[in-house]
Amino acid sequence: MTQQTQTALPAVVCRPDDAHKAALESHLAQRGIETAKWFTPGALHDLDRAVRQGRIRHVIFAGLPDLLQAIWEEEIVFEEWPADTHIEFLDPPGGDTVRTIAASWATWRQQHRRRQAWSGLLLSVLVLILSFALCVYLAR
Amino acid sequence: MLALLLLILVLVVMWFTQALSLRSVGKPLRLRIDHADLPRSLQRVNRTVTNAAFAAVLIAYPLLRGESPFHYYARFFPLDWRVFGLPHGVAAALIYLGLLYACWLFTDNIYLRSLSDLRRLGARLAGVPLSAVIGAGIEELLFRAMLLAGLLESLRPALGPGTGTAVAVAIGTVVFAGAHYVRRVKRHWTFPGHLALGLLLCVSFACTDALWLPLGLHGGGILIIMGLRPLVRYVGPPWLVGASIYPYAGAVGVVGLTILTFNMWLLHGGG
Predict the structure, then answer these.
(1) Identity of the residue in B102, B240, B266 whose CB atom sits nearest the CB atom of A117
(2) How far apart (Å, rounded) are the C-alpha atoms in residues A72 and A104?
């Protein structure tokens, strides 16, 4: 997370209805940034591509959890971002970064497990119907 | 009823062997059958006595009825169309469980373990077919050929073929499931899974009056569960995928066993 002057258009990651939106706009105004490219969390593949291609070199997140969520969801491949990409947080992580990362991971894992369970259940029902039909067909 | 009494006798033998073992190491007696805190050598003695008691009961039951054990058990292996129940049962178990495992793997509810020691894995997998034959064979002889056949024999004439069969199947199912919880177990929530499994095996036997089909279903199930045990890790919620060697104990497993029961009933008896 280097601090250096960026020439390319900065990117801001924020939901349209996010409580942080006004704060982010004011933060940009304070920094004299008139134009920025806005991305919503959950649709960060375009941002990821732009950063990896060097078209965006400065990304502003509302907080560390937003970046982590994008990493867990594999929407951004963070290890392939150029090392000189300037990452900024409106709400910078405090001293307990490890706890923030762990909490974000736990929340994501819980959501992920729930999705896996529901998809597993749905597919299981289909598989049981298929098994029943297959057994009846094979026994004919 | 004689079969039920003999099975209860096995419990008594198990309890007395445990009591003697506990006394020999100066520990207080207890009602629960639990060998965990006994020395390893005494655990082995208790296991051997239990197995011997089961074998003795299997032999004693036909003898007490005035039949030779060979002739009694041979009648449940008729060499007619019912022989095909064996491959049919194995195939049905493999289809149901195989497809369920595939969809759980696809949705990340089970993970494949990394295979570091292939020689050890090979040795474990090589023993699975024998475990399936022995495990399914002994349980089917005890709970179907002895207990359920005895119940059907006495309840069908007394209550009529329909009601008699239904009551015998219900008792056979409950005793089979309960027998898995006589000793201390890690989890009790698997009981509905054992009930559903018992119902499948009892219905399969009652429909065919032969051991081929329940043996095939039981053996096929053990084959796939034990065969995959060293390869997979259950990470999904227990209500979905069950746990450890009980994939049939989750809600999906119980529903699956119920559908499979209907499947077998439809094809071998009621359909």
Answers:
(1) B240
(2) 9
